[in-house]
Amino acid sequence: MLMAPTNTHTGSQSHAVASIPEPAATDPRDSDFQFRPIGYIRSPFDDKFGIPRQARLAPAAQARLELLPPYDRDEACSGLEGFSHLWLLFVFHQDCLTAGWQPMVRPPRLGGRAKVGVFASRAPYRPNPIGLSAVEYHGRVRERSGLVLHLGGVDLLDGTPVLDIKPYVPYADAVPEASQGFAQAPQEARWPVRFSPQAQRELSQADPENRLQLQALIEQIIGLDPRPGYMDRYPERNVFAMRLHGCDIQWKIATGHALVTRIIAGTQQRPSGYTRV
Ligand code: SAM
Known about the structure:
Helices cover 10% and strands 29% of the residues. A hairpin with a 2-residue loop joins strand 12 and strand 13 (247-254). It is built from four helices and 15 strands. The strands form four sheets. The chain has a six-stranded antiparallel β-barrel. It has a five-stranded mixed sheet with strand order 11-14-13-12-15. It has 277 residues and is mainly beta. It has two domains: 16-173, Elongation Factor Tu (Ef-tu), domain 3, CATH 2.40.30.70; 193-274, YaeB-like fold (2-Layer Sandwich). S-adenosylmethionine binds next to strand 8. S-adenosylmethionine binds at residues 48, 51, 53-55, 92-94, 96, 122, 124, 131-133, 155-157, 160.
């Protein structure tokens, strides 16, 4: 069971570097909430590097939401079939539950340099590390393991606990005239993505029938430039690795494009990130 951190009333606007500890629950305004995950996400993303920064940026990021008993009842999902998109409320469970939070954060969209308030950001490190994603809904299937919802365009780590599902309702949720502050839409693709001959061979072994949409996923993710914003300052660091669907994807920045050099299936989990040669 996951427990949301105690409500805070620090009201502090301090720019202290250290994380703000949660206050002792002596204030009568403090409330504890206990939420039980209704299910868990199975996604291609074995670790955080490479996960799109928002939902629907990489449509090939397909995932399953495996509902847990007693929430895995068909009645609980009846009516969802009319909806193309769902809101997921989930917990940023990796690192964020214990890491604390800071009042100002550096969003990747600002190159990792400028700071904005945590409540002006979609950063995972927040007082209550709860995330919100509008994802594609591709239907539900009853499997031996239980009820599974098929999703697309996710920005969720494998194993993410989901607290709730709500239908995305365009008449209420879509606001075409909304202004978007510093979070302007990302460019289509930072660079074209090519595959070395070896990577092409490995790709056809790793995903022979294109069931995983691995090629499209790699192209979409690398095209979005998954590197942290500050990496532009280190052009000499141009070799990267990430894990998708259990494969080690190695790539580098070449002149005018990104080149995928290796796709190694079935390796032990290895650190992803940058400058791994
Ligand atoms: N759309 C959501 C929102 O706005 O609340 C998530 C946006 S957040 C910027 C997306 C990032 O959260 C991903 O790129 C990944 O680095 C991180 N992330 C995704 N799932 C996570 C999890 N379960 N635990 C911790 N971090 C996660």
